[in-house]
Amino acid sequence: MYKGTDASAGIGIGKAVIVEEKELVIQRETIIDSAAEIQRFKGALETSMEQTRILAEDLATRVGEKEAEILNGHIMLLSDPMMTGEIESMIQKDLVNSEFAIENVCTMYADMFASMGDELMQQRATDMRDIKTRMQKVLMGVESVDIASLPEGTVLLAKDLTPSMTAGINPANVTGIVTELGGRTSHSAILARALEIPAVVALSGILEAVKNGDMLVLDGSDGTVLVNPEDEALAEYQGKRAAFLKEKKELEKYIGKPSVTKDGVTVELAANIGKPEDVDKVLQYDGEGVGLFRTEFLFMDRNAMPTEEEQFEAYRKVAIAMNGKPVIIRTLDIGGDKEIPYMGLEKDENPFLGYRAVRFCLDRKDDVYRPQLRALLRASAFGNIKIMIPLVTCIDEYRAVKALVEEIKGELDEKGINYNPDIQLGIMVETAAASLIADIFAREADFFSIGTNDLTQYTMSVDRGNDKISYLYSTFNPAVLRSIKRIITCAREAGIMVGMCGEAASDPMMIPLLLAFGLNEFSMSPSAILRARKMITEYNTEDLQAIADQAMSFTTTAEVENYMREFINS
């Protein structure tokens, strides 16, 4: 038995097919005619863009617009005049071949993204390496492996899968994916989930243990992989697969049902989104609202800041689609850890503690924050929009944003522009500081949304992207649990809504604790909503109080996790 990282739920059973891309050997060659070489590069660039467009259109048809956006992001990278300009400049000045110039420039960008630690930037690094290889293959006349024609019943194994490779997979033939590299939040993992193919990633050394044709079983829910299992084990996992597919079908009956516990406690199950197109999935899985709209995605993969009108249309589209259901929109959360060239940001020495989120926005009121807040207020006339401020650490920041919102309301009144005068302004509680003064914030903020990813990181002083200390990064750590409980208690005592938009909101082991603590709203990936609703309808919150009290009495993360795991499994 081998253990990797669970990336896409489900049981995959089939024969191993190892996909190995031909390693490109890039050499520096001196050229004579730089103008001709630049034309050669431009031809490869255009071919790569056309290949990506075709793949994106196919993915949009088969899976959805949201998933195709990942490949549309590749087209934006290929269209970036800064990157292409640097490649052309290197060809012209250094008289080098296109393959070598692409290698140098794209690798520089990829390394820069990878060094930032942020999950989104790690994905950008992978995307950059993907487009680099694609252009080089065109130039060198190297054909890519035809993943679309893999035989039925294949478990695909690879060192790593690029987004373009994953997008070409036919789910009818591929029953599972196993890779040595990658992570749960990588674009390839996101696509695997969208294609509903079980996947296990970050399983080091698996390629040495497997040969083509071996029988493989993988559990994408817990990261387990079996190679040539005994008949008994194979039968066990065939049973698990049947049960998983049956449960998935049964979850559909929870569409349209209220999210209410056995003893009548109603909660709201909302979804996290990054683009207006994502709202289709929210409606598909019967989301009761949008608990987090990450607006930074509107600002990325482009050459200039989105205009107020562009932002207004994006926010309005989501508000109208949700038809009166709450839509919590987080104001821009970028900073020194996210490279957006047109913003003119300098790289911070310690980006997670630096010039980012509300700190950046309040410093750039006129050109960045005012247009966004104006767009949000205007869009609030079309639905139940709420504004959320990220990374707040002191009440002064909240008051400064509130004053700016009131100022913009006055400007809109003067021009006779409609908006919701009672629009709510809340905060994302994701720092130790905000947790400690949650009682103070609760007296002024209209709502809370707990961001457990950063709250855990800051509470535990752990870089969540650092594998060496990842064992410390757990929402079940007693310090983090106490912080979450305190935030919820402060909100409930002040009579304001308190939600959660971090990954913990959909964790089956965390949901019972959050119900016992009194959380009002759970925001998660749209596909997780129905499973969470099923769990919630089976619980009695009064019974969960004793479970929560016991969990809170433990002194170590392992004790809490083991206790909650046993409770769930029982």
Write a structural description.
This protein has 570 residues and is of the alpha/beta class. The chain folds into three domains: 2-21 and 146-229, Phosphohistidine domain (Glucose Oxidase, domain 1); 34-140, Enzyme I, Chain A, domain 2 (Orthogonal Bundle), CATH 1.10.274; 262-569, Alpha-Beta Barrel (TIM Barrel). It has 23 helices and 16 strands. It has helices at 34-62, 65-79, 81-94, 98-114, 119-140, 163-167, 187-194, 206-209, 231-250, 279-284, 296-299, 308-322, 357-363, 365-379, 395-415, 432-436, 438-442, 452-460, 478-494, 511-517, 529-537, 541-553, 557-569, and strands spanning 2-3, 5-8, 11-19, 154-158, 174-179, 199-201, 215-219, 224-227, 268-273, 290-294, 326-330, 384-389, 425-429, 447-450, 497-500, 521-524. The longest helix has 29 residues, at 34-62.
Secondary-structure map with pairings?
Elements: E1 2-3, E2 5-8, E3 11-19, H1 34-62, H2 65-79, H3 81-94, H4 98-114, H5 119-140, E4 154-158, H6 163-167, E5 174-179, H7 187-194, E6 199-201, H8 206-209, E7 215-219, E8 224-227, H9 231-250, E9 268-273, H10 279-284, E10 290-294, H11 296-299, H12 308-322, E11 326-330, H13 357-363, H14 365-379, E12 384-389, H15 395-415, E13 425-429, H16 432-436, H17 438-442, E14 447-450, H18 452-460, H19 478-494, E15 497-500, H20 511-517, E16 521-524, H21 529-537, H22 541-553, H23 557-569
Parallel strand pairs: 3-4, 4-5, 5-6, 9-10, 9-16, 10-11, 11-12, 12-13, 13-14, 14-15, 15-16
Antiparallel strand pairs: 1-8, 2-6, 3-7, 7-8
